[in-house]
Amino acid sequence: MAAPLRVMLTEGQPAPPIALTDQNGESVDVATLRGKNVLVYFYPKADTPGCTQQACLLRDLRPELGDDTVVVGISPDKVPALARFHTKYGLNFDLLSDVEHTVAEAYGVWQEKKNYGKTYMGIVRSSFLVGADGVLQGVWYGVKPAATPTTAL
Q1: Of 38, 46, 51, 139, which is the active-site residue?
Q2: pLDDT cut 70: percent of the chain above it
Q3: Which of 9, 35, 82, 152 is the most buried (most CB within 10 A)?
């Protein structure tokens, strides 16, 4: 399996576009959120221990981010899995389905991974703060679940 060319984004670059389907099956285009900051975080799989910890910490932190910041989680999960995860933990932000991992590739988080000697392609847990002007204000590759909220502040 050949790994795709890896993109590494940096602060100050325009954020790649994000137009995906949310947990309710509705289309979401992050460009419509211009004028607000958007914390975009990529996670490997809904309802797994690390991803649950990360989502719940962001849910609890959401009020501290204020009305001018929107949180969006992205994974390769299908919409029904996102809907169950969203409801089960009472998440107060949208989860977007990137089954084809096109957005993950644009952000450089779809990478070759190794686990127990097995090599596969998957999401490298990462976060990006997109400024109100659509420019990346923060870029964090390979974050730990508990670190996502602290890097966002």
Answers
A1: 51
A2: 93
A3: 82
Q: Give the percent of the chain with pLDDT over 90.
A: 77
The amino acid at residue 72 is: V
| CB-based contacts of 68, cutoff 8 Å, min separation 6 | 36, 37, 132
CA end-to-end span of the chain: 38
Longest CA–CA separation in the chain, Å: 45
Region for 89 from its dihedrals, namely left if φ exceeds 0, alpha if ψ lies in -120 to 50, beta otherwise = alpha
Q: Is the pLDDT of residue 2 over 80?
A: no
Tokens encoding 146:
């508990």
Q: Tell me whether residue 51 is one of the annotated catalytic residues.
A: yes
Euclidean distance between CA atoms 49 and 14, whole angstroms: 32
SS3 string, 6-53, reads: CCCCCCCCECCCCEEEECCCCEEEHHHHCCCEEEEEECCCCCCHHHHH
